[in-house]
Amino acid sequence: MSLMPPKILISACLLGRPVRYDGKGKPLHDPILERWKSEDCLVGYCPEQAGGLPTPRPPAEIEGGMNGDDVLAGRARVLEVTGGDVTAEFISGGKRAVAFAEEQGCRFALLIDSSPSCGSGFIYDGTFSGTRHPGFGVTAALMRRAGIEVFSPRQIEDLVTSLAEAPCKSGS
Fold first, then answer.
1. Each residue of 21-58: pLDDT tens digit?
2. C-beta separation of 123 from 61 below 8 A
């Protein structure tokens, strides 16, 4: 038996996959990420696509300056700039992301900031004006509820520390 580093669920767009609302990726270039890729620690996932949303798609934000916990409690919706309500798709995709993370043994998630799904520290305020506020997106909120530690790209050093303190999984 050998020890393997813990798996990390990562927003697929951070791996450069063209899954964002605009049909593009937003690759994160960091030597630590490159090491994790070589160690096969990263598991890419896009909750918005998993929830059935097309790519590209209209931009969406959580209404009223609320956050993912508010969406899950039924106090807020995720609305497209066109007015379409995509709350159900965001919740479904978030639940699928958590299930996938658990299946893969992920105890950590590295999620892109600002997204109404993956927002992991900051999200847009629902006005489509580019204004951000502290908060978590729907998937990030679900991950936290499931006990999966959520980090943003600006917290990558904190994730490194958490990984160092985490017991490794044993593999064959």
1. 999 999 999 999 999 999 999 999 999 999 999 999 99
2. yes
Q: Is the dihedral of CA 117, 93, 155, 144 positive or negative?
A: positive
Tokens of 159: 């994730």
Pair 154, 87: CB distance under 8 Å: no
Backbone angles phi, psi at 135, to 5 degrees: 160, 170
Three-state DSSP state, 34: helix
Which of 72, 78, 69, 56 minimizes the C-alpha distance to 125? 78
Its pTM stands at 0.93
Return d(Cα 9, Cα 144) in angstroms, integer. 13
Q: How many CA atoms lie within 13 A of 51 on its CB side?
A: 24
